[in-house]
Amino acid sequence: MPVDSFRWLPGAIAAYYRGLPLQKVEPIPWTPLAKPVERCRFALVTTAGLYMKDRDAPFDLDGERRNPFWGDPTYRVVPRDARQEQIGVAHLHINPTDLLADMNVALPVQRFLELEAAGRIGSLAPSHYSFMGYQPSNSEWEKRYGPEVAGRMKEEGVDAAFLTPT
Amino acid sequence: MEAAGISTVIVTPMPYFAEALGAARAVGVAFPFGHPLGHAGDRDEQMKVIGDALRVLREAPGPGTVEHLPYEWPDFERWKTEWQPAEPSPIVALLRERMRAQAQERRGDPTA
């Protein structure tokens, strides 16, 4: 059965999203997988608003409170050896309880380390990337931070990215 | 990222947008927002979703491949609110306030 993309939303918000005029990207950008998954290096990307509490500032939620039509477009790096207790969540649009208990729900670093150990993927890159998904305007992602993250991935030899918008 | 030479696969609770906007490869999950890979602490469920996403990454015949995964989320009624933040987000609070004000105006309420 197809997944109903609007099942979790209150009616008025679902109607708003269904009514958005959407322009399909044509042609869809496409990079064929360069090698078997078992030899690919992976990077993970989420929009769950995760950050490293002991090292980085959270996303700018006060800015969003001052201007509800704005969302912090920056990103944070989460290293492959991040421990659960180092993870914070700064995102005003979701309940963070489960992410604070188990980041693998959105950024499956530990699952991918297991896949790496089992030889089911080539390797997990050193760095992974967390954005905060409330973005009334995507322009900063498109113009600045998306290309920046793609560049960092290339520097780390990443073949494939595993993306979890929330 | 695809344009930069990195192959991608997306795991999303809203495959509608992957289809409408044009994603290279995606899988849709019937999981609430904030839970793209399933339940906290459920390693097997997380691995199933990841395994399916990696299969789509490996086998997708071309751009625009979106597969809907069959996994269910129990206790739907409770989770319709459980995934939401304890406090409404600033935009939701603002829009609710505006709608309330408009409704009061329509009624000719002098305190509006």
What does this 3D model show about the protein?
- The complex is a heterodimer of chains A (166) and B (112).
- Helix content of chain A is 28%, strand content 17%.
- Chain A is α/β, with parallel strands linked by helices and 166 residues long.
- In chain A, strands 1, 3, 5, 6 and 7 form a 5-stranded mixed beta sheet that branches. In chain A, strands 2-4 form a two-stranded antiparallel ribbon.
- The two termini of chain A are 21 Å apart.
- In chain B, 43% of the residues lie in helices and 12% in strands.
- In chain B, strand 1 (7-12), helix 1 (15-21) and strand 2 form a beta-alpha-beta unit.
- Chain B has helices at 15-21, 43-59, 76-82, 90-106, and strands spanning 7-12, 25-28, 65-68.
- Chain B has 4 helices and 3 strands.
- The chains are: A alpha/beta (166), B alpha/beta (112).
- The interface between A and B is large, with 70 and 64 residues.
- Strand 7 of chain A pairs parallel with strand 1 (7-12) of chain B.
